[in-house]
Amino acid sequence: MAQGTPPQLRGILFDRDGTLVVDVPMNDDPTRVQPLPTAADAVRRARAAGLFVGVASNQPGIATGELSRDGLDRVNGRIEALLGPFDGWFVCTHAKDAGCLCRKPQPGLVTQAARAWAVAPSELALIGDTAADVGAAANAGALGVLVPNPRTRREEVTAAPTVATTAIEAVERLLAHEPHAAPAVDPVGVHS
């Protein structure tokens, strides 16, 4: 690989809540799963490009007892029924203050995916709606793309190295090797 040439993209991780599906806190009801408008197209496009496709999600409700493992599995199963099978689910089930290395923005979920898929973290990207998602990617040496929604804070948008308006736009830009050409994002609905 020539110096300065970015590594080949081998896989994309998607944040779950707020990126693939509408964020319903502590959801254990599969009937409440609602994919976001471009999620199916984004996942389909990544698969069609021959990439590994996975989910990286913080689910601290398991540790606190607000969410059961069975409920989490049923919701994840419904997401797969709607969006197709994923090559891996990488989930941090620790409490927010546990100090683990897998809770985003720590790199653990990205490095777990890299090990599972036998690729370098630098060959992965993580698409999400928060600074924690982008931070997890950066901390692992992967690419991070922020796709803001109304719950994303304005400072997260400003600080993100790469911003896309939709999940499909994020995937297309990653496939075109343009992860750092961030477009202007209309901050309407983005929290200040």
What does this structure look like?
The protein has 192 residues and is an alpha/beta fold. Helices cover 33% and strands 13% of the residues. Helix 1 (39-48) packs parallel to helix 7 (167-175).
User: For the residues shown, what is the average pLDDT?
Assistant: 91
| C-alpha-based Rg, rounded | 16 Å
Order of helices and strands: EHEHHEHEHEHH
* N-end to C-end Cα span: 42 Å
Bin the strand percentage. 5-15%
Oligomer category: single chain
**Total number of strands:** 5
Number of helices: 7
Helix content: 25-40%
Structural class: alpha/beta
Instruction: Categorize the overall geometry.
Output: globular
CATH superfamily annotation: HAD superfamily/HAD-like
**The CATH topology:** Rossmann fold
Number of domains: 1
Reading off the top of the CATH hierarchy, the class is best stated as Alpha Beta
Strand order of the largest sheet: 3-2-1-4-5
Instruction: Describe the largest sheet.
Output: 5 strands, parallel
In the CATH classification, which architecture applies?
3-Layer(aba) Sandwich
Low-confidence stretches: 1-5, 180-192
